[in-house]
Amino acid sequence: MSDIKGKYKKILEDLESNIKDPEDLVYSKEKIMELTFIFMDIVDRLTMLTDARMKELEEKQKEINSRMQEVQAIVDEIEGDIYEEDDGYEFEIVCPYCNYEFTTDIADGEKDEIKCPKCNNIIELDWNSEDEFSCPGDCSHCHEEQVAEDKEEYKHNDDEPEDDDM
Predict the structure, then answer these.
(1) DSSP string of 79-115, one letter each residue
(2) What is the residue range of 124's domain?
(3) What is the dihedral of CA 12, 14, 20, 21, to 10 degrees?
(4) Which pTM value belongs to this model?
(5) What is the pLDDT along the chain (166 residues), one digit of tens a residue?
(6) CA–CA gap between residue 166 and residue 151 (Å, rounded)
(7) Quick one: 70 and 12 in the same domain?
(8) Is residue 123 part of a domain?
């Protein structure tokens, strides 16, 4: 701004040194002043328009930021639902021993067995089974049935001698 004042002052000094007639000098200075006021008026109007536009843009930016925060919150929630690493899941389990149905929180693959709260028998959990109703035959329940069947077969074969060395 001070550079403009210096240039303006230099122009007035040039007019004074080059215009010898005092009336022409006054007239020239007045016209330069009018021209200067016109330019300053234009600059003031442009500044007001720019300020108003900047305020409008700031308000729109606040609105956009607010909407972006809402969208980001929704995206974060969806992302949390999709990629959530909370391995705790609620499972309904039916005890194969007493048919008691209960719900428990078990982290995926965390436990291999769980105790029935009613009969206190241990229920083995198979995390790799694709068919939840199929039993691979190696759980304790099936194993106990197999052992019981083997004992029954052994009792029915009385004609074979017992071998105590086995």
Answers:
(1) HHHHH----EEEEEEE-TTT--EEEEEEETTT-SEEE
(2) 88-156
(3) -30
(4) 0.38
(5) 568 889 988 998 999 999 999 999 999 999 999 999 999 999 999 999 999 999 999 999 999 999 999 999 999 989 887 876 655 567 788 899 999 998 887 765 567 788 999 999 998 877 665 544 445 555 555 555 555 555 555 555 455 555 555 4
(6) 15
(7) yes
(8) yes
Domain boundary among the residues 82, 98, 131 is at 82
Would residue 111 count as lying in a domain? yes
What are the pLDDT digits (tens) for 62-72? 999 999 999 99
- Number of independent structural domains in the chain: 2
- Boundary-marking domain end, from 63, 82, 101: 82
Q: Alpha-carbon distance 122 to 102, whole Å?
A: 14
